[in-house]
Amino acid sequence: MSEQKKTNIILFSGDYDRAMAAYIIANGAAAYDHKVTIFHTFWGLNALRKDEKLRPSKTFMEKMFGKMMPKGAENLPLSKMQYAGMGPKMIKNVMKKHNAMPLDDLISMAQEQEITLLACTMTMDLLGLKEEELLDDIEYGGVAAYIAEGEDGAINLFI
Amino acid sequence: MNITKTLDAKGLACPMPIVRTKKAIDEVNSGEVLEVVATDAGAKSDLAAWTKSSGHKLLETKEEDGVYTFYVEKG
């Protein structure tokens, strides 16, 4: 076969539905034998947070940010119809009925398909997120890491 | 038609039929036929597009009571 194509997705959003779309596209592209990278920046980093009580050493502001932001994929809010948490419960119910994979499973599937999950270190610093709070086996980088993959990407998306 | 392997993807939603098909085709040899059974309506165009772009051949597609059966020959 010809040279392996690349799909690159920047996940900026921390919304459950948007992250789902990103991970469905990523998993689909991996099935097309693309080399896939998802760059998590700003609110998209929250999709990578572990849903555990961790106590890394942080400044007061960093602690506040950590408390205010959702902890992990299954705690992300919806972009529409959030209704104080009712919306995500409802949509997850409907998803179960239609056999759609929840976001945390889509992320595990992505790792299984060897999709590179990359966390932007500059925004991690801004939001006070530490490496031990994010999923294991992910990579860390900055804009150059994205450009290196993106400049010859067949598909480049900003979500 | 000689079917080497059958994949049951019934009840699975996007993107799983294509993800599983990709895994299954990796397990057969070139020229062998993979049978894929799915119920996701999107699988019809998904499988056709995927086989075309990944160098395999979609030999036949059947549809019966909302169940789609695809025969994919590995390229």
Automatic annotation (TrEMBL), chain A:
Superkingdom of source: Bacteria
Coiled-coil regions listed: none
Gene3D superfamilies, alphabetized: DsrEFH-like
InterPro entries the record matches: DsrE2-like, DsrEFH-like
SUPFAM superfamilies: DsrEFH-like (SSF75169)
One Pfam family per UniProt: DrsE_2
Protein name per UniProt: NADH dehydrogenase
Species this chain originates from: Alkalibacillus haloalkaliphilus
UniProtKB/TrEMBL annotation, chain B:
Gene3D superfamilies noted in UniProt: TusA-like domain
Domain of life according to the entry: Bacteria
Residues passing through the membrane, by range: none
Residue span(s) of domain UPF0033: 7-31
Family, similarity comment: Belongs to the sulfur carrier protein TusA family.
Name of the protein in its database record: UPF0033 protein YrkI
Source organism (scientific name): Alkalibacillus haloalkaliphilus
Gene behind this protein: yrkI_2
